[in-house]
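Is FE2/S2 (inorganic) cluster placement plausible here? Inputs below.
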Amino acid sequence: MTQTQAPDSTTGLDWIEVGPLMAIPPLGARVVKHPSGEIAVFRNREDEVFALRNHCPHRGGPLSEGIVCERRVYCPLHNWGIALETGSALAPDEGETACFPTRVDNGTVFIGLPGSGGSP
Ligand code: FES
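Reply from A.M.:
I modeled the complex. Tokens:
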């Protein structure tokens, strides 16, 4: 279950509560269901958190089931590398998936989605 905080008037983002950082497995991900589609929230070894649409730019593989390494995730279907900071495929592959801002407040993870009227 997710909760939404009031829109941030400075960024226009709705910050969606994902849950405790410790509930996301290290080098793994948790899936957030959103009306516009699934969002994969990743945690790397350094406890950095990233959020991408759970849809590989190659053939739509579930990135949340991929292997996290530093600031990359490797798709479980054909092993494309995707940059967690941008959602872009690593060369020589091309393409990108949507990327969303994240923040951690007092151990709770939030993802920023476009405010009402926008689609992530
Ligand atoms: S679907 Fe992700 S690499 Fe092919």
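Short version: The first strand starts at residue 3 and ends at 4.
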